[in-house]
Amino acid sequence: MQQRSVRDLMRIRHALVVNETSTLREVAERLIISDCDLMAVTDASGKLAGVVCESSIVRALLSNPASDATIQSIVIRHAESVRLDANLTCVQPLFRSCANTALPVVDANGFVCGLLMRSDVIRSLLNRDADAKESTTTELNSESLQEKIPAAAPDAFNSAAAFTPPKKRTLHAGDAGSETDNAQSRPHFLRADAARRILWAAEDRL
Q: Which of 41, 60, 101, 184 lies at 20 to 30 Å from 194 by C-alpha?
């Protein structure tokens, strides 16, 4: 089975990537309409600057901040990220901790490409187990079928060599009597001169 990469599973959503100069209100509104509790934060050049989580936004809003307050002070700068071309199997251990619900995906230059969601990784694991079970069942059924078919069986499917009709029909005990009866019940045909003599004799009797 071919190994999948982060590129195959990540979500490309601009709503889940915000700039570090975005306001608390703007980021809070994006979190409300998204299905993620974390957003990737980029700097002015588009490279990864960190992440901001929902709990940090809530704490900041509870402190009654100014309307133009940004998220710069609550950005988690030392955040884990994954490479775009990384093997998905190598990335899966990062989601063992309940802290990581999503991971930013970056390219070779550090630019943010999207987010890898924990829910998508779980779905991928479930599909992998289902595919492995289906593949095992198919192999077992194939092996069982091969065991039931004898070694010479493939020749039986060759219609050219499978059956050759006998040159002479073999009569069974029951068929012999029927053949004799059929021969006795067949009509007897007369030659032309013999038939005429019989007709003349019949006319004389009349």
A: 184
Query: Which phi and psi angles does 46 have, rounded to 5°?
Result: 95, 0
Helix (H) or strand (E) holding 2: none
The four Cα atoms 14, 16, 17, 18 give a dihedral, to 10 degrees, of 110
- Whether the Cβ atoms of residue 87 and residue 3 lie closer than 8 Å to each other: yes
Domain segments of the chain as ranges: 6-123
Residue by residue, pLDDT tens for the chain (206 residues) are 457 888 888 888 778 899 999 999 999 999 888 878 889 999 999 999 999 999 999 999 999 999 899 999 999 998 889 999 999 888 888 887 667 788 999 999 989 998 998 888 888 888 876 655 655 555 555 555 556 555 545 554 444 454 555 555 545 555 555 544 555 555 555 666 777 777 777 666 65
**Domain 6-123 annotated CATH 3.40.50.300:** no
